[in-house]
Amino acid sequence: MSTKRKTTIQDLADYANVSIGTVDRVIHKRGKVSPDKQKKVEEAIKKLNFNPNLLARTLALGQQFVICSLFPGTTHPNSYWSLPKRGVTEAVVDYRDYGLECHAMEYSLFDELSFVEKADAIIDMNPDGVILAPLFEKESLLFIKKLDEKKIPYVFIDAVIPNQKNLSYIGPDLKGSGHVAGKLMSSMLNSFDDILILNFVKGLENSHINIIEKGFREFFSSSKDLGNGKINSVTVPSIEEADITRELTKYYIKNPETKGVFVTNSRAHIIAKYHAMHELPIKLIGFDMLEANILEMKNGNIDFLISQRPISQGAMAVKTLFEFFVQKKTPAKIRHVPLDIIIKENIDYHIKLQEPVNDKL
Amino acid sequence: MSTKRKTTIQDLADYANVSIGTVDRVIHKRGKVSPDKQKKVEEAIKKLNFNPNLLARTLALGQQFVICSLFPGTTHPNSYWSLPKRGVTEAVVDYRDYGLECHAMEYSLFDELSFVEKADAIIDMNPDGVILAPLFEKESLLFIKKLDEKKIPYVFIDAVIPNQKNLSYIGPDLKGSGHVAGKLMSSMLNSFDDILILNFVKGLENSHINIIEKGFREFFSSSKDLGNGKINSVTVPSIEEADITRELTKYYIKNPETKGVFVTNSRAHIIAKYHAMHELPIKLIGFDMLEANILEMKNGNIDFLISQRPISQGAMAVKTLFEFFVQKKTPAKIRHVPLDIIIKENIDYHIKLQEPVNDKL
DNA sequence: TAAAAAAATGTGTGCCTACACATATTAATG
DNA sequence: CATTAATATGTGTAGGCACACATTTTTTTA
């Protein structure tokens, strides 16, 4: 099956009776072209509908882009942060032939110093772009100040520090995720049922949590028909299962009428197991499709999970930087990922999508 | 920022003390290489971690791929089928430089003959691959028989004819979508509430609808605690608003206790308007993020929409064919898209994702 | 008006691969 | 051992583009 060839610069040159060198100067606005030929070439570009071949261009330029990612380390093999990381890795493969390379750096969520160390290492590496999950706000600010100085573009992922010069933020709308959780909770409960909001503290995640909780409460307060029960929030200053269990027991003994729990991070599975063990018919909503959460959802111990497409986030971040480098595309400053509502009945399709792609060659 | 260059075939040649011609023969298993040099080159590939540059390869081959899509025509500007079409178009742009070209064909959902005509046109065109929405089963079977004869690979999208030689099916799990709808409905209603399943007929969609309805009923029958109310189904043999309204009125007068409606296609917006007009507090679940459905959801007249990522479907189909052509990747035969649960609170994020990408260059 | 300077335009090479073709090496045959 | 056949190996070119450099044309200056 043959079809019309694509227009090349040689075609333009022929049309305008000039050499490809002149065409090239026009295309790249390098000047040194007489006005009449300039016009003629521009006419050719329009008339022949010229689109430069990105492949050939890339090949000719032989450019090399190095980006660094700085994410929290994956404590468990299937923890949340392995997912954005996966998205980055997969996207980098797509752009490998275009000269893109990525160095993945990790810091510990329990150690600000590790963040600083890795950040410095990135600065030393002098990359072309950075993908950053700015969970330590203070340290992140110091880091991006250096990036700004070196004019290295950076993309925030998953979390955001407002009013910075980041190229883009790719992640959830935290308040919106609270709204979604509120709606889902209200659809399962009666308006007078009591609800518990459960926060965990670790590092600087606090500020985020507050916004999620705010959104959740906002949903109920925006309607007089809803949320006539109590909505309490408890913050457990630990992510240890023992600590959580203890706090939970304390709370439930005091508040036996609790009908729904909203866990503002990815650890709903711990609560789910607790509910199952104590045969508590309490509705449960949490975040993220971790292995453990998937299991508890399938066991019927989690009713809704809200997922923020962590893999897509990673892939989008890479794509954003690449398009900025190669095509000078300026992305939207804020790009909220869809908040996927996961239930037992549709979770398998989402898992399938998470699975690595098939064999090569 | 400089970094180690990527390994080229020249590097391999140097390492193995042969010419690039020999390297090429090894890479492409063209034979005519002495065993010792063969081994040496293979060693070089491993040691230098060689990955052929897809860009240079594509450029060198100068290959041209032509695919055709055969979808139902878009009756309204924002109808369902404009979305997969959008996905195809956008993906084709991504692969344009790789020599991919797509001819979009459309048939009328009310005219089998138009399908046959376009199908024949595609056969005449002798494309390298086809993306097909096989909504007319009988005619589709004739079409793919011809495709099989000509060894033209094809991908089913949105709908599937079982047991064919299609490269892949990309679309929803229909029964699963019924399960999801069932779960969502049950979460909103009491177990003894009456439910109406609403089907519309147009063309051969019937068979699909039956499966969706089956899934919906299956969900309720699988639990003794649920679905103790009546679950009736009505099939309206038209998609005209007037006809639908009449049938609905007839039904509601006979069944005033109806508490929930499940519309098995994308026309929930019509029912939504009816409910609003008559002030009926009936829960409503439908499919697909059409403009009209989005509006009614925002108005509060639709509770849940189930979306099957129509844009992704189109994009995935293109990607599948391309990877099959270029990288000989064999896709999974069935790829069910995630069933997105859309509510008023998360619809905006999904709309944003649907919007066309930003400016170029 | 010739020479020098400036501006405009053209040419050639590299990027990496695939493939046709040319050449070199080895094996087989009389 | 010379000759042919078979096999192995090397070379050249195309593909579209960017860029450095060479060459031509025009303008300026003495």
From TrEMBL, chains A, B:
Pfam families linked: LacI, Peripla_BP_4
Gene Ontology MF annotations: DNA-binding transcription factor activity; transcription cis-regulatory region binding
CDD domains: HTH_LacI (cd01392)
SMART domains reported for this sequence: HTH_LACI
Residues in HTH lacI-type domain copies: 7-61
PANTHER family: LACI-FAMILY TRANSCRIPTION REGULATOR, LACI-RELATED TRANSCRIPTIONAL REPRESSOR
Protein name per UniProt: Substrate-binding domain-containing protein
